[in-house]
Amino acid sequence: MADESFLANPEIVLRSEEDGAFLFDPDSGRICFVNEVGITIWKLCKKPVTLSEIVARVSLAYSEVPGEKVDADCREFLSNLGKLNFLSMNR
């Protein structure tokens, strides 16, 4: 996963709310709630971005969180969005 690049599906709609945001796929009807960190990652994926770039940016923004936790959480989040077809992953 480290050498893959991620790109947001341009069909997915982001709707910001007070405590996070919803990602919605109008074609499938799938919806996913994301928190502030998820919004940060989603916005980074608007152009092709690697896992290491995402982890570095999230680590910078949330320096109080250990790097290993940021890495693991980013991997899980990206994997989940990939399964929903909200992201494309390219090697």
- Encode the helix/strand succession as letters: EEEEHEHHE
Can you name the CATH architecture?
Alpha-Beta Complex
CATH class: Alpha Beta
The general outline is: globular
Specify the oligomeric state: single chain
Percentage of β-strand residues: 25-35%
What is the arithmetic mean of pLDDT? 94
Low-confidence region ranges: none
How far apart are the termini? 8 Å
Please report the total strand number as a whole number: 6
- Domains counted in the coordinates: how many? 1
Helicity, as a percent range: 40-55%
Category by helix and strand content? alpha+beta
Q: Return the CATH topology.
A: Outer Surface Protein A, domain 3
Total helix count?
A: 3
Sequence of strands across the biggest β-sheet: 5-1-6
The main sheet comes to:
3 strands, antiparallel
Radius of gyration: 13 Å
Report what the structure shows.
- Helix content is 41%, strand content 26%.
- The chain has helices at 36-44, 51-61, 67-83, and strands at residues 5-8, 13-17, 20-24, 31-34, 49-50, 87-90.
- Helix 2 (51-61) packs across helix 3.
- The chain is globular and about 35 Å long.
- 20% of the residues are buried.
